[in-house]
Amino acid sequence: xxxxxxxxxxxxxxxxxxxxxxxxxxxxxxxxxxxxxxxxxxxxxxxxxxxxxxxxxxxxxxxxxxxxxxxxxxxxxxxxxxxxxxxxxxxxxxxxxxxxxxxxxxxxxxxxxxxxxxxxxxxxxxxxxxxxxxxxxxxxxxxxxxxxxxxxxxxxxxxxxxxxxxxxxxxxxxxxxxxxxxxxxxxxxxx
Amino acid sequence: xxxxxxxxxxxxxxxxxxxxxxxxxxxxxxxxxxxxxxxxxxxxxxxxxxxxxxxxxxxxxxxxxxxxxxxxxxxxxxxxxxxxxxxxxxxxxxxxxxxxxxxxxxxxxxxxxxxxxxxxxxxxxxxxxxxxxxxxxxxxxxxxxxxxxxxxxxxxxxxxxxxxxxxxxxxxxxxxxxxxxxxxxxxxxxxxxxxxxxxxxxxxxxxxxxxxxxxxx
Lengths: 191, 217
Prior knowledge:
The structure holds 2 protein chains of 2 kinds. Helix content of chain A is 43%, strand content 17%. Chain A is an alpha+beta fold. In chain A, helix 6 packs antiparallel against helix 7. Helix content of chain B is 41%, strand content 15%. Classes of the chains: A alpha+beta, B alpha+beta.
């Protein structure tokens, strides 16, 4: 059962939960990528305009709550995201827009399709994701009918509207009409 | 010895500069909760029934927590590997686990209280007892003990991305409402912009109407 078959979708939002196995001796590499990623801007990820939230983590030890002791060899890498669109669009966009990040995030994991180092083959990458993805038992989305683009547009409009309201209180009516036209022109791309 | 001490201090400062002081679970006013707890033996199916019985969106018990934008419960029954590329011997887990993760966004002045403030809110949900009662060492209804339990089960995040890290759920709802209402307002009053119809009375009425309506958006 793939992660998208059970409860991983709510209107526009979809969830992905992947656990991959990091090759022994390479856990330092994703950790280094995380440090550099935190220090850098998120412009590259921002190009993937359909991701609401995403997280990555390397897990070498699970919390000890009295269960039989686990030896995580190899270590696990957890990837979770909340996105809108379809699974195919999501994977295709990842591979096309930020292939270098795919290699950095999963290149040291078992099963990542490295057939040719300069190109990530779509089919094998989809199969890799399918094989590593977990079904979701309960998924909650606070605002399920809004895409990332809608939300970002709306936030820009709301901010511009607040600013505009402040400026036009007490303004001459004809001047107001002109400024209102300018305001609508400014935000029309986001309406 | 003084020289060594100074070198260590300098190295710490450089490391702090590279790594950054920010908690990696945070991005702006958003916080990534990731908790993994082992499920009691033989309870996985019962837990799955509880989780899959919850409804979506406003029917979800998590809708009672206004800071949560996204959340999920995932049962990790075993590692998923493809025999074509799995390492040998094939790694397996000795127990089954429950993963809970949530993306929270709180008003800026409340970010300092995370994650404990969220765990306290979570403890107040009847669903928290129904779910984590199937997990080992669930401490019962004591809020402080539940916060400690969640803290002990928390996984540190390496890299966290949030598209709109400073907008709470309430901010997003408000912004979506403003956008819809402004679009409607512009459409309803577009005649006022036709230059041949412009006069002081129309313009003044439009300004009054805009200020009155937008105050409620």
